[in-house]
Amino acid sequence: MGQDYAGDVSVTTAWKALQEDQNAILVDVRTIPEFQFVGVPDLSAAGKQVHCLSWQVYPQMQVNPNFVEAIQELATSEDQAIYLLCRSGVRSVSAAVALTAAGFKNCYNIEQGFEGPPDPSGHRGAIAGWKASGLPWKQN
Fold first, then answer.
1. Which CATH superfamily is domain 7-138 in?
2. What DSSP string describes 118-134?
3. pTM score, two decimals?
């Protein structure tokens, strides 16, 4: 492997895998304000729901002490494919590493995350990531 988790995948690779593998899950590790105000992936076309579980807890941004335990309750096996998404693909790496250390074998970081990097004006969501790639998403 060469790293502490299964690897990085593009948003389109993750979307395809979520549609094709009935056991694969998507865990959005952003904060509650991000879920509420920025939006979340819409997996209804794949017959699934996104699992919103913060890796870091807003506003102090400490690591969620219950994160691994919550995934252990959610997952059906240690071999299940778990795709992890954050704003830009940084927090989701940390979550993938922690889950792999806990015994999960197929934890994937979704590169560029939900919003991707900032554009030249400093705004996210326009040049890369889940939203900019035209994948389904919704705002609450």
1. Rhodanese-like domain (3.40.250.10)
2. --TTS-SSSSSHHHHTT
3. 0.95
